[in-house]
Design a protein that fits this description.
Number of domains: 2
Helix content: 25-40%
Low-confidence stretches: none
CATH class of the largest domain: Alpha Beta
Strand content: 15-25%
CATH superfamily of the largest domain: SPOUT methyltransferase, trefoil knot domain
Shape: elongated
CATH topology of the largest domain: Alpha/beta knot
Largest sheet: 6 strands, parallel
Order of helices and strands: EHEHEHEHEHEHEHEEHEH
CATH architecture of the largest domain: 3-Layer(aba) Sandwich
Mean pLDDT: 91
Length: about 240
C-alpha cells in the first residue's frame, strides 16, 4: 500500500467514509475496542466497506504514524454506476462486452485482468464491494496503468449486476468447468458479459444458477485449471476473434 493511498487514525477514516471517499479496505487491529472504534465499525457496515482484523505489527508496517488501530486504503480511481454505464453504451448503439469478476481477491491477478480487458476493448469491469481485490498500488502497477482507462463498477451483489444486465438484453456467460460446452461454442458477437470466478472457489454456485450460458476452456494437460488471469485472457480474445 503506497503512503499516498492510505488514511490512518480512526476519526480520519470515519470522516473519509462520511465524505464518500473511495475506500477499498480498512485494516483493524485485532481486539481493538472503544467507543470510537464502535463508531468506525458502524460507519463501515453502513457503507458496506470491506475490512479485516490484523495484528498490530501489520499496521505498524503500513504506517509509521499513530494509526490508533486502524489504517484504510484509498482507491486511486473513481468507480462507475453500472446502470448508467450500461444505458450509455447501449444508447450509443454498441453491443457491450462486460467482464464480471466474482470474488477475485489477488490484487496482481486483478491488475493483470484489467490490463487484458483494456487491451481487448472491454466496456466495463464489474466487481463486488465486499471480498474483491482492492485497487491499490499493486493493482495499478500490474495493470500497467490500464486501471485508469477502463470503467470499473462496484456493486453490492454480483447477482444483482447479472439481473440488471439481463434486463437490458445482455447475455451472461460463466467461465466454469461445470459444463460440456467450450468457449468456442458461445456467440460472443452479441451483447455479452463474461463472468470469471475466484482463484480458489471459482464462480459462486448461486451465481451459476442464474447465468444464461456456461463455457469452459479445453484442457489437455494433467493440471486441471489455469490461472484466472490467463483463463480470462483466453475468453476475451475469443470474443475479439469473433467480433473481428
Amino acid at each position: 500500500m503506497e503512503k499516498e493511498q492510505q488514511i490512518f487514525g480512526i476519526r480520519a477514516i470515519i470522516e473519509a467514509i462520511q465524505s464518500g471517499a473511495s475506500i477499498d479496505k480498512v485494516y483493524i487491529q485485532k481486539e481493538a475496542t472503544g467507543d470510537l472504534m464502535k463508531e468506525l465499525m458502524k460507519a463501515m457496515k453502513k457503507a458496506n466497506i470491506n475490512f479485516s482484523y490484523v495484528p498490530v505489527e501489520k499496521l505498524n508496517k503500513l504506517t509509521p504514524n499513530n494509526h490508533q488501530g486502524a489504517v484504510a486504503s484509498i482507491s486511486p480511481i473513481s468507480f462507475f454506476d453500472l446502470e448508467t454505464l450500461t444505458e450509455t453504451i447501449l444508447e450509443n448503439g454498441k453491443k457491450p462486452l462486460f467482464l464480471i469478476l466474482d470474488q477475485i481477491s489477488d490484487a496482481r491477478n486483478f491488475g493483470a485482468i484489467i490490463r487484458t480487458a483494456e487491451c481487448t476493448g472491454v466496456d466495463g469491469i464489474i466487481i463486488q464491494k465486499s471480498g474483491a481485490a482492492p485497487v491499490n498500488g499493486d493493482t495499478v502497477k500490474t495493470s500497467a496503468g490500464a486501471v485508469f482507462n477502463i470503467p470499473i463498477c462496484k456493486v453490492e451483489h454480483i447477482k444483482d449486476a447479472i439481473f440488471l444486465l439481463q434486463a437490458h438484453g445482455i447475455k451472461t456467460v460463466a467461465a466454469t468447468e461445470k459444463t460440456e460446452d467450450t468457449l468456442y461454442n458461445i456467440d460472443f458477437k452479441e451483447a455479452v458479459a463474461i463472468i470469471m470466478g475466484s482463484e480458489d472457489k471459482g464462480i459462486n454456485p448461486s451465481v451459476l444458477k442464474i447465468v444464461d450460458e456456461r463455457a469452459k476452456l479445453p484442457m489437455f494437460g494433467t493440471i486441471g485449471s489455469l490461472n484466472v488471469s490467463v483463463a480470462c485472457g483466453a475468453f476475451l480474445y475469443e470474443a475479439v476473434r469473433q467480433r473481428s
